[in-house]
Amino acid sequence: MSEIYVLALSVVFSLIVVKLCHWVYQWSNPKCKGKLPPGSMGFPIIGETFEFMTPFDISLVVSPYLKKRISRYGSKVFRTSLFGAKVIVSIDPDVNMEIAKASSQLRATESVTRIFGENNPFLQSKEIHKYVRNLTSRFVGPEGLKTRLIHDIDNLLRNDVENGARNGSFDVREATIKMVGELIAKKIMGETESEAVKELGLCWSAFRTSWFQFSYNIPGTTVYRLVKARRKAAKLLKALILKKKASKEGLGDFLDIIFDEMEKDGTALDIDKAVNLIFVFFILSQETTPGVQGAVVKLVADHPSVMEELQREHEAIVQNRADKDTGVTWEEYKSMTFTHMVIKESLRFTSTQPTVHRIPDQDVQIGDYTLPAGWLFFGIPQVHFDEEKYDDPLTFNPWRWQGKDINSTVSREYMPFGAGGTHCVGSEFAKLIIAILLHHLSRFRWSLDPKTEVLRRYTLVFPAGCVVHISKESE
């Protein structure tokens, strides 16, 4: 009997080993009707995620991860696995633009979409995403910024800078996170119960930790806490929205837009989609804009000639006002020519994270390679440092944009906010915040803490913060 038992165990163990080996082989050699780009799928499930997410100094244009693979494969397009997903990574600008225009969904990895729930914008079709994008642009597009937001942004940032001046210093990134949070909470929810808003703030603050990671929802893990926070926030938001709607209270600006849309015949928007849209919009605004803001301040601080030119431009704007204490107007914002040149160059210099996320609906043929349907596509804008497109691309030089179109945010040579019909709807929102902060900073003599360090990861990382020291108001 014992021999039979040992034999049975041996057979079961052998079958498990064979099955495991077959699974590993299938993982390492994914099927494709055509020819896949060169690459490696890394370890099963983990793939090459940890190496891809390793931070590196902002002075390094190409990440060590990308540099190693481009050298190994001799190609600007390669395959890999990240966050449990099959991924095609491209730094080829023509390929990136081709995929951006193709019939495909805007999509993040499934690990991210699980955290944000079934109704999040990452899982929507291209048509639904375009619909949501047009809806959101009514709030953060040029007209919305001009009529709804510029005054509040100006007041909040002015207070932050002046409070920082009184204290001698402040963290630019943290101040921007706080400002964006206050602004969006007010404009989305309007004036509402402070206790409810405080609870929502706690839920949103949970996402201050890195949420772009593996999303195995196991109790005790970061992902478990994020999913719990998102569900609680959705419940709070839904209850607040329905209560305000039932009581005929004044809704926040964004809710006015959403409910106006929901009451239309044949609308694709319901209360659950609206709640998730608000939640994702808030998280993404706090994740992206503050990081770019910090990087802009770091680049300006590192280039005294840029700082001096900014001060001249903003001093002239103040001097031309009848009342020197009035806030920034839309006309003044549009007239900040050099400021827009600085912002455009900063975005070129800092945008090396994937800005084109797509899942092709069908196989796409690009040259000799096939990009399979269902695979996630990451397009990384290395074209920003192409010597054929830019003179001395490794140098931060806002004057390179002099006499050029400083308002354009999408082209084959420039795509900090993505490309195609699904480029980031919040691009003007971010640019306005950066410009107004630079305007108020220019009133003071300031310098950046020497410990400030900017690292590139999937987003920009500030290990020691981004602290500005302010000595006195510039005369």
UniProtKB/TrEMBL annotation:
One of its GO terms (molecular function) is oxidoreductase activity, acting on paired donors, with incorporation or reduction of molecular oxygen. Heme binds at residue 424. It is found in: Membrane. GO terms for cellular component: membrane. Its cofactor is heme. It comes from the Eukaryota. Keywords: Heme, Iron, Membrane, Metal-binding, Monooxygenase, Oxidoreductase, Transmembrane, Transmembrane helix. InterPro entries: Cyt_P450, Cyt_P450_CS, Cyt_P450_E_grp-IV, Cyt_P450_sf. It is a single-pass membrane protein. The chain crosses the membrane at residues 6-25. The keyword Iron applies. Belongs to the cytochrome P450 family. This is Cytochrome P450.
